[in-house]
Amino acid sequence: MKKNNRQSQIIIYQTGDGKTRVEVRFEHENVWLTQKLMAELFQTTVANINIHLKNIFQSGELNQDSVIKDFLITASDKKRYKTKRESINAMISANSLNL
């Protein structure tokens, strides 16, 4: 695990066969992933993740403001960009939809 100065950790998950490797952010007792990483984890498409999350928010199962957070990342060009990540709660709800 790598630590940064903001009390968050990067956790690396890799399947036994080594085919899937996903880095997630652990911060404030929660795990955060981009939709792209969620798609890799569940071996599906970003569009499919987006559809399921949209349905979860529309149904009222989860409040979008409580499971989506903006993070700043530093890219290879040394510029900082804002990226959205979904929490573990969103992943669990999406997975319950049989992705």
Outline the structure in words:
It is globular, with a radius of gyration of 14 Å. The chain starts with a strand and ends with a helix. It has helices at residues 35-42, 46-59, 64-67, 88-95, and strands at residues 2-3, 8-14, 21-27, 30-33, 68-74, 80-87. The protein has one domain (2-95). The model is unreliable at 1-5 (pLDDT under 50). With 99 residues, the protein is α+β, with helices and mostly antiparallel strands. 34% of the residues lie in helices and 35% in strands. The protein has a six-stranded antiparallel sheet with strand order 1-2-3-4-6-5. Helix 1 (35-42) crosses helix 2. Strand 1 and strand 2 (8-14) form a beta hairpin. The longest helix has 14 residues, at 46-59.
What's the short version?
With 99 residues, the protein is an alpha+beta fold. It has helices at residues 35-42, 46-59, 64-67, 88-95, and strands at 2-3, 8-14, 21-27, 30-33, 68-74, 80-87. It has one domain (2-95).
Largest sheet: 6 strands, antiparallel
Portion of residues in beta strands equals: 35-45%
Strand order in the sheet with the most strands: 1-2-3-4-6-5
Distance between the termini: 28 Å
Domains counted in the coordinates: how many?
Answer: 1
Mean pLDDT: 79
Quickly count the helices.
Answer: 4
Written as H for each helix and E for each strand, in order along the chain, the element string is EEEEHHHEEH
Shape: globular
Rg for CA atoms:
14 Å
Task: Point out poorly predicted stretches.
Answer: 1-5
